[in-house]
Specification:
- The chain is mostly helical.
- The chain folds into three domains: about 120 residues, HUPs (Rossmann fold, 3-Layer(aba) Sandwich), CATH 3.40.50; about 150 residues, Serine Threonine Protein Phosphatase 5, Tetratricopeptide repeat (Alpha Horseshoe), CATH 1.25.40; about 170 residues, DNA Cyclobutane Dipyrimidine Photolyase, subunit A, domain 3 (Orthogonal Bundle), CATH 1.10.579.
- The protein has 21 helices and seven strands.
- It has a five-stranded parallel β-sheet, with helices on both faces. A two-stranded antiparallel sheet has the order 6-7.
- Helix 7 crosses helix 12, helix 13 crosses helix 14 and helix 14 packs across helix 18.
- The structure holds flavin-adenine dinucleotide and ligand DLZ.
- Flavin-adenine dinucleotide binds next to helix 10, helix 12, helix 14 and helix 16.
């Protein structure tokens, strides 16, 4: 028996089950393929991360004594899909079966499962780098009328023992969110991310990315993602020492100038396998016990990983493939063209998109409450918005991107991800950011030439979806306000929103599939 072990670009972890139990004669394959680079127009940083990290990991495996085949993008024999490359290499190396770990996308998992009974059978393994398996999630979800992060998260705290003391949550509460909603002070200094050196292997990989995908969003001049475990550990240490103490209170804040604030930037390293979520959570927990970070920060951070990250993955695997087709609010609008170049006079959107172009990064609140909120209020169709988020962020993998976009942002899953839509007016942006002082629109005006478009769009959204949303107990208050509003005011707001949407639909580039 001789396996061909295929490792995907987001499986760069030595403890992967297929590697742990690899026999001496196993051949390990990593394959750069055009099909993975083309399903959405990935940001150039994202392609650079995958190519550079895969090349480094192949070297790590060789150093450990594994027999490694690396299919490079320019290899003349390359068949350019992961399935066909694995099968070609298995034959070439006389392997009698192929081993793979559950990938991060349903489409690949399906393709692998369909090959299990072929002449070169695929043997599939569970990905045990997470705290939970899809089966664990399905068990937890079984029989529950409503799925809610908070209950799932508490169970994960008990199961993992993270921040637990004698069966009770550390600090006496499960959740310290009420301490975590501060806007930024007028003057503050956030720690500068470590600057990673680029060795010959990284430079080579980035040159290939540039050669083939130089026309995609972004420039490699600003590339600073970790592509080795060593670099990822440097980023983690930096976060723990310099950002974690303030992570909690400024978690929801947005800055006009600072893209990273006190966020960890660790999603990329965790998603491709350079760091394990367990070690990241454990290291954060230690900061609480050594007194270097307060409980609201550490609990808030651990909840994102042990709670949200696992929860979205569980939802993804238990709800796919139907999940991807959900569109409960019936959205039909194309993605506005300015999502690709930041060319808009709404300052919050302009800055979130410019930061995305510069760094292939935006923090959670920018994704949810700026680009996400605008798309929700305008009713952008899920497939268009999902493709954008999947393309533009270096940490984007479908298992985590899809529930966040389709569920959390667009409320298209009927409330599995969030008990209410995260819709907001300009007031929210004004409270949590310093964008509005640089904007031509005023968050205080609802109608008129200077009115922030988010204000009329917000009420228009509520009015449009009243049938579906007004019975939601968490929306009662706001629908009460809408009901009390004078007819003339409602009419004026509706007209203002409709005029804005009509203009949006006729803006240059709108509706053209120019970026795919
Ligand atoms: P931090 O703010 O430092 O948070 C710590 C970690 O918690 C993150 O690294 C991440 O692993 C985890 N986390 C935080 N929020 C979430 C969440 N909602 N779901 C899952 N994990 C979470 N995250 C991705 O990893 N890949 C994606 O493709 C992705 N797409 C998103 C799309 C939308 C529309 C939204 C609203 C969120 C998305 N997120 C995604 C979640 C979150 O925005 C990013 O994980 C986070 O911004 C990454 O930056 P960071 O590492 O500095 O995170
Ligand atoms: C995103 C990406 C890119 C751009 N290129 C490759 C590649 O050449 N080879 C590979 O194995 N993986 C790549 N990936 C990541 C895959 O798309 C990812 O592993 C799957 O989407 C499953 O999450």
């Amino acid at each position: 028996s001789k396996p061909l072990i295929i490792l995907l670009g987001d499986q760069l972890t030595l403890s992967l089950p297929t590697l742990r139990q690899a026999p001496e004669n196993a051949v390990v394959a990593l394959c750069e393929v055009a099909s993975e680079a083309h399903y959405v127009p990935h940001h150039i940083h994202k392609i650079g991360v995958f190519l550079a990290a895969m090349r480094h990991f192949a070297q790590t495996l060789r150093d450990k004594g594994f027999t490694v085949h690396y299919s490079a993008l320019d290899d003349p024999d390359n068949t350019h899909t992961l399935i066909s490359e694995a099968e070609r290499l298995a034959s070439a190396y006389d392997c009698n079966h192929i081993q793979a770990v559950r990938p991060g996308e349903w489409r690949l998992w399906q393709a692998m499962q369909n090959r299990q009974d072929t002449a070169l059978p695929w043997q599939l393994f569970e990905d045990d780098r997470f705290f939970t398996t899809p089966e664990d999630f399905a068990q937890w979800a079984k029989g529950r009328k409503q799925l809610r992060l908070e209950y799932f998260y508490r169970e994960q705290r008990k199961r993992s023992g993270l921040l637990m003391e004698h069966g009770e949550p550390a600090g006496g509460q499960w959740n310290f969110d009420h301490d975590n909603r501060e806007p930024l002070p007028e003057t503050f200094e956030s720690p500068r991310p470590p600057q990673h050196q680029q060795d010959a292997l990284t430079r080579e990989a980035l040159a290939v990315a540039q050669q083939h995908f130089g026309h995609h969003m972004g420039t490699l001049e600003t590339f600073n993602w970790p592509v080795t475990r060593r670099q990822a550990l440097v980023d983690m240490r930096h976060f723990l020492d310099h950002c974690l103490p303030d992570f909690g209170r400024y978690q929801d804040a947005i800055s006009d100038t600072d893209p990273f604030l006190f966020h960890s930037r660790l999603a990329v390293a965790m998603n491709i396998g350079l760091l394990s979520p367990r070690e990241v959570c454990k290291a954060a927990e230690t900061c609480y016990y050594t007194g270097s970070a307060p409980i609201n920060a550490v609990e808030g951070f651990i909840r994102q990983i042990l709670g949200w990250r696992e929860y979205v993955r569980g939802l993804y695997w238990t709800q796919m493939p139907n999940y991807k087709r959900e569109n409960r609010l019936g959205f039909t609008r194309d993605l506005p063209a300015f999502y690709w170049d930041g060319n808009t006079d709404m300052r919050c959107l302009q800055r979130a998109i410019e930061m995305t172009i510069d760094n292939s990064y935006a923090h959670h609140i920018q994704r949810l409450m700026v680009t996400g909120n605008f798309a929700l209020l305008c009713g952008v169709k899920p497939e268009a918005l999902c493709d954008w988020y999947l393309a533009v962020y270096a940490d984007a993998c479908e298992w985590v991107e899809l529930p966040n976009t389709l569920g959390m942002v667009l409320h298209a899953d009927g409330g599995l991800m969030g008990s209410k839509p995260y819709c907001a007016s300009g007031k929210y942006i004004d409270k949590m950011s310093d964008h509005c002082q640089h904007c031509r629109y005023s968050p205080k005006q609802v109608t008129g030439a200077k009115a922030c478009p988010l204000n009329s769009l917000y009420w228009h959204f509520l009015e449009t979806h009243e049938n579906k949303l007004s019975q939601n107990p968490r929306m009662k208050l706001i629908y009460g306000s809408l009901a009390r509003m004078k007819t003339e005011k409602r009419d004026a707001m509706r007209q203002q929103a409709q005029a804005f949407l009509a203009k949006l639909d006729t803006a240059p580039g709108y509706g053209d599939a120019i970026h795919t």
